[in-house]
Amino acid sequence: VLGLLVWALIADTTYYLHAAYGWVMFVSIFFWIVTVLFFVTYLLQLQLKFYMIPWPLVLMIFNTAATVLYVTAFVTCAAAVQPTSWRQWDYNRRAAASFFACLTMIAYGVSTFFSFRAWKGLGSNAATSQVSDHV
């Protein structure tokens, strides 16, 4: 949802006049689409059919790449906001897009932490700990 807000807010401005917003649009749309694909994969439990793929490692790499590229998108978006813009609505949308890009960056960073723990096998939930205790 946060990534969707980023690219929707930028798309509603005259982003094509500023090259910096092209990068922000690419990062936000690309990672939004891939995140939705991963969500659908897990929702339909397709990862169980493709058991040969190391899903925790794939998710950790994806979340790390998303975090790093969202850092660049956030910095680019925040630096390109011009408070003296003659179009006030563009300024408000771009400033809001910068805010949501920061929140998205933080969310992907937290996901990176949890996917790293899952990849290393450090994380467990109540269901797996209950099953392993009784076995």
TrEMBL record:
One GO cellular component term noted in the UniProt record for this chain: myelin sheath
Keywords assigned: Cell membrane, Membrane, Transmembrane, Transmembrane helix
TM stretches of this protein: 20-44, 56-81, 96-116
GO molecular function, one term: structural constituent of myelin sheath
Family matches, as Pfam families: MARVEL (PF01284)
InterPro entries from the UniProt entry: MAL, Marvel, MARVEL-CKLF_proteins
Residue span(s) of domain MARVEL: 1-120
Domain of life: Eukaryota
Subcellular location: Apical cell membrane; Myelin membrane
Topological category with respect to the lipid bilayer: Multi-pass membrane protein
GO annotation (BP), single: myelination
UniProt keyword Cell membrane present: yes
Keyword Plastid recorded: no
Family: Belongs to the MAL family.
Assembly description: Forms oligomers.
PANTHER family given in the database record: MARVEL-CONTAINING POTENTIAL LIPID RAFT-ASSOCIATED PROTEIN (PTHR22776), PLASMOLIPIN (PTHR22776:SF9)
UniProt-recorded name of the protein: Plasmolipin
